[in-house]
Amino acid sequence: MYFVMIPFVFVSLWLVQDDRIARISSAIRLIPDFPKPGIIFQDITTLLLDPKAFQDTIDVFAERYKDKDISVVAGMEARGFIFGPPIALAIGAKIVPMRKPKKLPGEVISEEYSLEYGTDKLEMHVGAVQPGERALIVDDLIATGGTLCAGIRLLDKSIKCSEIFGWPSCRTCWSRGSRVCLSN
């Protein structure tokens, strides 16, 4: 009946006093002017090379969402596949991959979204999420918001009603067609 979303890289923005946040932030390498001038790319591969920072990342997310009755973690391609499964295990939820077209076998539902340079689609297995389940979307970043909105619409097709926690600045994105009840 509900879903919850979080963008991965915004973990460093949480307003909490926690030594782990500094360790996580310092483990993420910043690469200026990648993939194009003016962009500062946050490379999480260096975080993955630091087992303590990687564990801290999973622990911080698990602590934040463990008491929210989440039964589904939807991992967005591709970094959602790295962080989604350990978060799902830590909170006792199943993992549901959301993939680019023609990557999942069997029957899928799909949702098209806009990119800066065209369109793409996300797909999810039919029946992976049932009405009444609560889902957490794990995505790595929000650029245009296209993949995140597509993931929300995929869950909305299965769950039928949506509630978003944790990122109030996304409000305008959800008003473009999905039935969403916002809360903080």
Map the helices and strands:
Layout (H helix, E strand, L loop, with lengths): L1 E6 L11 H9 L1 E4 L7 E4 L1 H4 L2 H15 L6 E5 L2 H13 L2 E5 L9 E8 L2 E8 L8 E6 L6 H14 L2 E3 L6 H4 L5 E3 L2
Parallel strand pairs: 1-8, 4-5, 4-8, 9-10
Antiparallel strand pairs: 2-3, 6-7
Helix pairs in contact: 1-3, 3-4
The N- and C-terminal alpha carbons lie at a distance of 17 Å
| Fraction of residues in β-strands | 25-35%
Physical arrangement of strands within the biggest beta sheet: 1-8-4-5
Helix residue percentage = 25-40%
Number of strands: 10
**What is the radius of gyration?**
16 Å
Question: Which stretches are low in confidence, meaning pLDDT under 50 for 5 or more residues running?
Answer: 9-13, 164-184
Q: Helix/strand-derived class?
A: alpha/beta
Give the averaged pLDDT, no decimals.
Answer: 79
Series of H and E elements: EHEEHHEHEEEEHEHE
Biggest sheet details:
4 strands, parallel
| Multimer state | single chain
Taken from the alpha-carbon principal axes, the silhouette is globular
Please describe what this structure looks like:
This protein has 6 helices and 10 strands. It is of the alpha/beta class and 184 residues long. The chain has a 4-stranded parallel sheet with strand order 1-8-4-5, sandwiched between helices. A two-stranded antiparallel ribbon has the order 2-3. Strand 4, helix 4 and strand 5 form a beta-alpha-beta unit. Helix 1 packs across helix 3 and helix 3 packs across helix 4. It is globular, with a radius of gyration of 16 Å.
